[in-house]
Amino acid sequence: MESIQAQKVMKGQKKIFGNEIYYEYYQHPSSTTTILLLHGFLSSTFSFRKLIPYAARDYNIISVDLPPFGNSGKSNKYIYSHKNHSRMIIELLKSLDIKEVILTGHSMGGQTCLNIMKDAPELAAKGVLLCSSGYLKKSSASLTFTSRLPFFHLFVKRRLAKTGIEKNLQNVVFNHSLIDQEMVKGYMEPFLNNEIFKGLTKMIREWEGDLSQDDLKRIETPCLLLWGEHDKVVSPDIGRRLHADLPNSSLKIFEGAGHLLPEEEPEKVYSCMKEFIEAAE
């Protein structure tokens, strides 16, 4: 595989809506097409580390840490909702003078992509949804109330610690032999900062749930849906429902893969993405 080290890579932060937003921008010497990568829940730009080297050979790449994850801020002034993530990404793209992107989202990031397609369709040339979240309801009233109790963030921390990073990875990766120390360390590192748990607590209160079926049916952006056959987190049945509701979509399900598709099948995922991006509408 061609190295991306020689490319111009910009790693930086921009303050948007009172929060520091971390992004990585891989600038291709000649391509005018830009892929935006948005990760899933409890993840970061790290989850695309195997996909980026393939995609950066042909396109510009922007990978963003959605707050409060990764290296982005955990400010209590920020609203941790899909809609606000969408607004933040729109502002970030404006600040980078990028007028159109291929929206690519994994899991929770897929739902943010769908919100951008709904709110700013002119930005979305096409969309790629990798095991995307779909049809989730907002947090219950009782959980929202409980999250306001003092020190609730410590309960969130204990709950996540009890499960453990390795057990979580075994749940999202079908082939457990892919789980190595680099992967464990990469997914554990963001949680060494205790501020993330305060952000997660605020997210519980502000999470508005996924887009409705009616909203999905009004999205005209061409979308490619890629799923793992053995996804235990977001069932392939969700992919089939999204395919039925998104009027201009196609669906491919990978055998022998789970939820963490960009980690498990980066070359196959990119091959499908490239074919989709280059196809005439």
UniProtKB/TrEMBL annotation:
Q: What is the residue range of the signal peptide feature?
A: none
InterPro entries reported for this sequence: AB_hydrolase_1, AB_hydrolase_fold, Epox_hydrolase-like
SUPFAM superfamilies in the cross-refs: alpha/beta-Hydrolases (SSF53474)
Domain AB hydrolase-1 positions:
34-266
* Name used for this protein in its record: Pimeloyl-ACP methyl ester carboxylesterase
Name the source organism.
Peribacillus deserti
